Amino acid sequence: MQDLRTKKTLMALEKAFYEIKKNKQLEQIKVKVLCEKAMINKTTFYNYFTDIYAFSDYIENKIIEEKFKILPKHSNVLFNIKQLIYDVYNSFNCKEIIILFGNRYDVLIKKCEKKLFDEYKSTINTTKKQLYISFFIYGASHILFDSKGTESEKLEMLTEILDNDFCNKMGINF
């Protein structure tokens, strides 16, 4: 458990990071500028993190954990990949994610995939199921974040693709 001083320091750094990240790519953010904006000493920053990339990784993992905590829980028995993809999309389609990951959705998707595999390891328990889930995670993210069309058109397309008949044809039963 973190003491109050540590919590305040990390919150100040996080707030400053989001403010700077709105206008700059990660590679452009300097620890010195971040610390000045957060009103903490650089030495304090380096007590917690080795560099700006380690700090960014910390923030990314933190927000993914927070988002997964508020997702509706899918029991392993009633696992529904279509509903899960919708829930993840709705949860992750927010300003913080857009600011934090910017054009690095590949990093977000990779971290979400790992989290899904960890959360549902008793259901996604074969290589075939893992490959199937990866295929839909990456495909769905491309449709939702990188392709043309309205949000409703994209979600409708995913519904067609993720139809249970298609899953059955693929030989995947959850």
Description:
The chain has 174 residues and is mainly α. It has a domain at 73-169. It has helices spanning 4-21, 31-38, 42-48, 52-70, 81-92, 95-101, 105-119, 127-146, 151-161, 164-169. Helix 4 runs antiparallel to helix 6 (95-101) and helix 7 runs antiparallel to helix 8. It is elongated. The two termini are 37 Å apart.
By secondary-structure content and strand pairing, the structural class works out as mainly alpha
The fraction of residues assigned to DSSP E strands is under 5%
Mean pLDDT: 83
Query: How many extended strands?
Result: 0
State the share of residues found in helices, binned by percent: over 70%
Overall shape: elongated
Rounded to the nearest angstrom, the radius of gyration is 19 Å
Instruction: Give the uncertain stretches in residue-range form.
Output: none
Major sheet description: none
Which key phrases capture this entry?
single chain, 174 residues, mainly alpha, 10 helices, 0% strand
Helices, strands, pairings?
Elements: H1 4-21, H2 31-38, H3 42-48, H4 52-70, H5 81-92, H6 95-101, H7 105-119, H8 127-146, H9 151-161, H10 164-169
Short description:
The chain has helices spanning 4-21, 31-38, 42-48, 52-70, 81-92, 95-101, 105-119, 127-146, 151-161, 164-169. The protein has ten helices and no strands. With 174 residues, it is mostly helical.
